[in-house]
Amino acid sequence: MNLTHVQEGTEHIVKAIVTDDEEMDAFLFSLGCYAGEPITVVRRVKGGCVVSIKDGRYNIDNHLAEAIEVE
């Protein structure tokens, strides 16, 4: 399942980044979003969501959220 389907406030572990776009993959990696890392959807906003990764909070759009597969 990807981040667009998880419940707000629950922590999940990133299983994989599913994209052929190397730039998107590098961007998510720079945020600390890669396999094995915990991620939490803090809040849903129009067109995306606010996520907590490591010690930061980031606003990502639905396109990025769909690429993040979680357990």
Automatic annotation (TrEMBL):
Entry coiled-coil feature ranges: none
Pfam family, one: FeoA
Listed GO MF terms: transition metal ion binding
Key words, A-Z: Iron
Domain Ferrous iron transporter FeoA-like: 1-71
Family annotation (InterPro entries): Fe-transptr_FeoA-like (IPR007167), FeoA_core_dom (IPR038157), Transcriptional_repressor_C (IPR008988)
Top-level lineage group: Bacteria
Annotated protein name in UniProt: Ferrous iron transporter FeoA-like domain-containing protein
